[in-house]
Amino acid sequence: MTIAGVLLAAGGSRRLGTPKQLLQQHGSSLVELAARQLLDAGCAPVLVIVGAHAVDIRAAVSLLPVICIDNEHWERGMGTSIATAISTLSMPTWGHVHSAVIASCDMPAVSVAHLRALTATAQSAPHHGVRRVASAYHGPAGDLVQGIPALLPRADWPALAALDGDQGARLLLRQADTATVFLRDGDLDLDTPADVHRWRAAEGHSPPPSNDT
Predict the structure, then answer these.
(1) Is residue 211 part of a domain?
(2) Distance CA 160, CA 172 (A)
(3) Which of 41, 81, 130, 142 meets the CB 3.0–4.6 Å disulfide criterion with 49?
(4) Domain membership flag for residue 155
């Protein structure tokens, strides 16, 4: 089964005040690390969706075998990036691709092992089909949330291609037939300076620079 990787990296990081995609971990940017994870998990092709800070993000992944796709409507929200990626994958060139793993670069809890668990679970569907698989993690209220990274089969692509604004794949991922793989600390998104401080502290780093706090 051929599985594409989609890395959402088009956002403007307004609440953070600095491009989250370019935050450093272990000497590499988060967007580079996230793209490598998708590649190491066996995804091909890997599309990196860019919008804000596109020049710098393209440079950050320039040594990787990924394809950067411009989302001209990135300011409208994440839904436009998903739609851009799926519209690209729906072209005849990628007719052999059966599903796509959608991921972001601001979830430090994600690992290659977790992405491989998503693909393994998807391929365990009965009758040799491909099931939809979401990451499950505890939300702010302690409830279990189903979100990305997630694997979505081609049957879901028409709905994804129609997304717009801030609406992501959450409605699809909440459906009863969605399988899940638990992601510990999956609730940590690097959206705000407080999130970055929490992440740095958990990683044992020294306090972040003043523009990250």
Answers:
(1) no
(2) 9
(3) 81
(4) yes
Read off the pLDDT band of 26 (50, 70, 90).
confident
According to DSSP, the residues that pair with 144 across neighbouring strands are 138
Contact between residue 204 and residue 114 where contact means Cβ atoms under 8 Å apart: no
Residues 85-94 as b or e (16 or more Cβ within 10 Å = b): bbebbbeeee
Domain total in the chain: 1
pTM: 0.91
**Cα(125)–Cα(123) distance, rounded to whole angstroms?**
5
Domain range holding 150?
3-206
**Dihedral angle of Cα 78, 69, 105, 31, to the nearest 10 degrees:** -150
- 180-201 exposure pattern, b = at least 16 Cβ within 10 A, e = fewer: bbebeebebebeebebbeebbe
